[in-house]
Design a protein that fits this description.
Elements: E1 3-9, H1 12-16, H2 20-36, E2 39-42, E3 47-50, E4 58-61, E5 71-78, H3 82-89, H4 93-96, E6 100-106
Antiparallel strand pairs: 1-5, 1-6, 2-5, 3-4
Length: 109
Amino acid sequence: MPKYITIHYGDRAGYDRTPQDIRQAAHEHDALLRQRGVLMGIAEAPVQVRNPNGGGVQTEAGSYLSSELPIAGFSMMEAKDIDEAIALVSKSPCAVAHGVIEIWPLKEQ
């Protein structure tokens, strides 16, 4: 079954202006996704890693990607196709609380 990586963007302001019942339903939906086997995590502080020409590891605190909204979390899921993946994340907190979720199809090597 195809795998998908999702990146969840959202901030506290968007979350707070979303009605409590909608937020609660979104968290209940995420609990169902976890029961389905979706791996979810909250984003913590990133570290960039480089090793140009294999000549030595260089690290830098902070994200390489930039966005208007902060990254709130990630997930990895299996779905039969992109349409099912969209349906699965469309009721998650970032999607309903004025954020956005990116879905990246994962091509396994």
